[in-house]
Design goal:
It comes from Streptomyces cyaneochromogenes. Keywords: Amino-acid biosynthesis, Glutamate biosynthesis, Iron, Iron-sulfur, Metal-binding, Oxidoreductase. The chain has 19 helices and 13 strands. With 495 residues, the chain is α/β, with parallel strands linked by helices. The protein has 3 domains: 126 residues, Alpha-helical ferredoxin (Fumarate Reductase Iron-sulfur Protein, Chain B, domain 2, Orthogonal Bundle), CATH 1.10.1060; 163 residues, FAD/NAD(P)-binding domain (3-Layer(bba) Sandwich), CATH 3.50.50; 164 residues, FAD/NAD(P)-binding domain. Strands 3-2-1-4-13 form a 5-stranded parallel β-sheet, sandwiched between helices. It has a 5-stranded parallel β-sheet with strand order 5-12-6-7-8. The chain has a 3-stranded antiparallel β-sheet with strand order 9-10-11, with no helix packed on it. β1, α10 and β2 form a beta-alpha-beta unit. α3 crosses α5, α3 crosses α9 and α5 packs across α9.
Length: 495
């Protein structure tokens, strides 16, 4: 602990964002380049050596947060990078994309702004790459065992890297043409530039991991055939079966799923397309769904040059502060948060009729209406109470040329045939069933990440990847020294 009074003398200071009017004109990350390092050592000093660091429990990876905070406060970046990578394969991803439940569990957050844990993590990860502290780590010897990992999101990549470093020969199968899963085509460039992803893929390739793109297991290669080629298989395909909105008018054109819209925008950034066929340019856009995917659509539509953008959230507007009776510390509270996309929409006034920034809270879609050509033109909504019951006399209509459904995901997509060909058991909610060791009912087949846990956070995805790697290593060799941070039954801290 470099400064025992740092939490009393130093106020919280977050990584500053670029001016709204500047950043909406490009697709670069929203933060001011180079503005984090000058402030981060003092911010790390705010870690208060609390004795029982609840930030550990709030993070499923078990990140050694007080340790690397202390090292950053002393500017020992190499040691900090070692401690960070000891529990997290991809801290530059989580440092940009995770909503930071660790900060909600920070002891300082009981009565003060929490330590900027997420910013410290990102600073360490970026500095590690700049200084060469993240070299490839190929195994000393090979085990002679082979593993196929299906899916290249954070779970699949974490599992593959851990198993490769343990000496197994690992091949990652990805149905898309590039590696990364939702990090590649679902996360907009302004949240995480893709060079961060490319760097890790290069590292993993140098370590010995093999990548097979444009290969949908179950369609391009039979699932049973793949299983016969490898000693073990890990299914990490994510939860990509999106939820629908069964209301009158859903059949109109111009009503699209968020995960149809966002990949096209990312493909423009990759150079595959000149313009997106679903571009929001000049259109009145309504996003149905109040979560992170909806916010990603919001920021993308703003950059597309939409005429207006409104986001509907079926929940009431949360308070600015934690409700200690219903969501006490150290749980992750549902409070009013202003993401970069919502800040942009607020400042640019993209939705004049919204309650706050671009959002209409406690709003439920009733139906859509369209023009003579069958294209959506209006969305009809009503306000709802806490039990989602319509409130009489609150109906209203929004202009809508493009409607994006961001209602979450129910489980893995079964269209490719992977699940049926392997005869996998499913949970009632549609996720893949597994035992306490991540094993499915098919011998030698394991399931991890959102495909089995259900839609979750990137830190849980990476934790699942690390844990399933330990389970597979144990299955192949009889024992494992790989870390296993969580079990399949662990859940975030709640009341």
């Amino acid at each position: 602990m470099a400064d025992p009074k740092g939490f009393m003398t130093t106020p919280r200071q977050d990584w500053p964002r670029r001016p709204v009017e500047e950043r909406v004109k490009d697709w670069d990350e929203v933060y001011v380049p180079g503005a984090l390092l000058p402030i981060i050592s003092k911010q790390a000093d705010r870690c208060m050596d609390c004795g029982i660091p609840f930030c550990h429990d709030a993070c499923p990876l078990g990140n050694l947060i007080p340790e690397w905070n202390d090292l950053v406060s002393r500017e020992d970046w190499r040691a900090a990078a070692d401690r960070l990578h000891a529990t997290n394969n991809f801290p530059e991803f989580t440092g940009r994309l995770c909503p930071a439940p660790c900060e909600a569990g920070c002891v300082l957050a009981i009565n003060q702004p929490a330590v900027t844990i997420k910013n410290v993590e990102c600073a360490i990860a970026d500095r590690a790459w700049e200084e060469g502290f993240a070299p490839p780590k190929p195994p000393d010897r090979l085990s002679g065992r082979t593993v196929a990992v299906i899916g290249s999101g954070p779970t699949g990549l974490a599992a593959a890297q851990q198993l490769t470093r343990a000496g197994h020969t690992v091949a990652v199968y990805e149905k898309d043409d590039r590696i990364g899963g939702l990090m590649r085509y679902g996360i907009p460039e302004f949240k995480m530039e893709k060079h961060h992803l490319e760097r890790r893929i290069e590292q993993m390739t140098a370590e010995g991991t093999k990548f097979r793109t444009s290969t949908a297991v179950g369609r391009d290669i039979g699932a049973a055939e793949l299983r016969s080629r490898y000693d073990a298989v890990v299914i990490a395909t994510g939860a990509t079966a999106w939820r629908e909105l069964p209301v009158p008018g859903r059949e109109l054109s111009g009503i699209e799923q968020a995960m149809q819209y966002l990949p096209l925008a990312n493909r423009v950034r990759e150079g595959d397309l000149e313009t997106s066929p679903m571009s929001a340019a000049g259109k009145h856009v309504v996003i149905v769904g109040g979560g992170d995917t909806g916010a990603d659509c919001l920021g993308t539509a703003v950059r597309d040059g939409a005429a207006s953008v409104t986001q509907l959230d079926i929940y009431a507007q949360p308070d600015a502060e934690r409700d200690e009776d219903t969501e006490p510390w150290p749980t992750y509270p549902k409070i009013y948060r202003l993401s970069a996309a919502h800040e942009e929409a607020r400042d640019l006034e993209t939705a004049p009729a919204a309650d706050a920034d671009a959002r209409l809270f406690a709003a439920s879609t009733l139906r859509f209406t369209g023009d003579a050509d069958g294209h959506v033109r209006s969305l009809h909504l009503t306000e709802v109470d806490a039990r989602r019951r319509p409130l009489p006399g609150t109906g209203r209509t929004l202009p809508a040329d493009l409607v994006l459904l961001a209602l979450g995901f129910s489980g893995p997509d079964r269209e490719d045939g992977l699940i049926d060909q392997l005869g996998l058991d499913l949970q009632p909610r549609g996720t893949i069933a597994r035992d306490a060791g991540f094993a499915t009912n098919a011998p030698g087949v394991f399931a991890a990440g959102d495909a089995a846990r259900g839609q979750s956070l990137i830190v849980w995805a990476i934790a699942e990847g690390r844990a399933v790697a330990a389970a597979v290593d144990r299955y192949l060799t009889g024992s494992s020294r790989l870390p296993s941070p969580i079990s399949p039954y662990d859940r975030p801290m709640t009341v």
